[in-house]
Amino acid sequence: MKTLKNFPYQHVLVLGLAKSGTAAAELLLDSGVEVRINDLKADKETAEVQALINKGADVVTGGHPLSVLDDIDYLVKNPGIPYENPIIAEAVERKIPVVTEVELASFLHEGPLVAVTGSNGKTTTTTLIHEMIKADQQAVALAGNIGHVSCEVARTTDDKETMVTELSSFQLLGTERFRPDISVWLNLYEAHLDYHHTLENYHRAKAKIAANQTAEDTLVYNADDKKIEQFLPDVKAKLVPFSIEKKGQGAWADEAFIYFNEEPIMKKHDIVLVGEQNLQNILAAVAAVKVNGIKNEAIVEVLKSFAGVKHRLQFVTKKNERLFYNDSKATNILATTYALKSFENPVILLAGGLDRGTTFESLIPHLDSVKAMVVFGETADILSDTAREAGIEDVIKVETMNEAVNEAYDRSDEEDVILLSPACASWDQYRTFEERGNMFIEAVHKL
Predict the structure, then answer these.
(1) Is 318 annotated as a binding residue?
(2) How many Cα atoms within 13 Å fall on the side-chain side of residue 331?
(3) Is 24 strand, coil or helix?
(4) Same domain, residue pair 172 and 213
(5) Which residues contact 407 (CB under 8 A, 6 or more apart)?
(6) Does 121 carry a binding-site annotation?
(7) Dihedral of CA 287/293/296/299: which sign?
(8) Residue 120 annotated in ligand binding
(9) Residue 222 and residue 286 in one domain
């Protein structure tokens, strides 16, 4: 496995373990760097932490003493740790670089790099790009905010292998030299304000995906998103649009076909994925791989068979003529809006979760097809009020996912869609959106 060469830092603090921190610490230790680890809740007796100690790491747990910064010249933080953390705030004050492990990957990976970001659709688009490159018989690796830590994946890639990585705003904020050959910016919507505090901060974090690109690189961007447009004058990369509304340039679609520039790629009717959001994801992926020289045959092969990513408008089953869809990854209003647009059948919507102070008025115009709502979590009462404002009379509040699925089924008729699309993060009741989605799937199969 590769290690860091000519790395300009010798004393690194890794703040927060989990998958990304552990991978970063292992890479740094294997590269001969002195590593200190600070994690509030880590147990030194676990096999994972003991392995790091045996490799030479100095591990500090149980608190965040400022002394962990002594002699440190570089800090790698877990993406989820906010910048208000006293250690990070002090590091910034001391002018110590604060990065995420994605930055370490940029020291390692030597082949083509495709990076995908956006408020919604990242995982589906990243997976599509990966599958299209693979279908073209090209060497490709999948990484980033999709379950595969970038700096760990980059240790095994070579200069002929494309790395496709999904990146959140949390990860991008902690980059300095990170430079994709092809970056993909899907959309820009209000999200994660509990972390970034202002919309401007969130937007700037997303814009870092193209910050270091040059005229040799490419930015694939959503030409229908006016918020992204405001950043384009500062982008030095070649601009390649994708659009549902505009025709003729980049990746686009009409009623019958999807195109790249003037070239028809395939019939829309042959695409398995449903929904307007997925059409945007598809067009973004097509633009990215066409820039990368991937053949149309590979694109068509994938789009004729790819049925979606788990927890992202995932078809679960058909039971007694009811259709069940798991969209647990819909952690904001825009994602739920896209999900609702995907169906013409009557919908019973399961929604709710962590209260981030969001109001749901913008969801109301998209609830026309919703015949009933089952709400849960911290936002249950707010969503109940929103549903009734939208004219939905059948609204029920529940405590568990089993209750939610049973109540939804009891209210359904043949041909109805029972859709979990929460419009909220999961952390009030579940550790992850995946756990929430799995609970939904389990409850559906119990019916």
Answers:
(1) no
(2) 21
(3) helix
(4) yes
(5) 374, 396, 398
(6) yes
(7) negative
(8) yes
(9) yes
Q: In degrees, to the nearest 5, what angle opens at C-alpha 374 toward C-alphas 372 and 379?
A: 125
> Annotation-wise, does 119 bind a ligand?
yes
Q: Identify the residue whose tokens are 């990146």.
A: 167
> Any binding-site annotation on 160?
no
Pull the structure tokens for residue 314: 């995932």
| Other residues' Cβ atoms within 10 Å of the Cβ of residue 301 | 16
| Residue 332 annotated as binding site | no
pTM: 0.79
Residues 297 and 321 in one domain: no
Residue after which a domain boundary falls, among 258, 275, 303: 303
411 to each of 196, 228, 348, how far by Cα in Å? Answer: 40, 41, 8
CB 19 within 8 A of CB 144: no
Return the pLDDT at 203: 85
Q: What is the pLDDT of residues 306-361, one digit of tens each?
A: 978 888 888 899 999 999 999 999 999 988 998 998 888 999 999 999 998 889 99
Question: Is the model's pLDDT at 385 over the cut of 70?
Answer: yes
Number of domain units in the chain:
3
| Amino acid (one-letter) located at 258 | I
pLDDT at res. 200 = 82
What pLDDT is attached to residue 73?
97
Whether 192 has a pLDDT exceeding 70, the answer reads no
Same domain for 150 and 27, yes or no, is: no
| Residue range(s) defining the domain that contains residue 265 | 102-303
Q: What is the pLDDT of residues 167-188, one digit of tens each?
A: 988 899 999 999 999 999 999 8
Q: How far is CA 260 from the centre of its chain?
A: 25
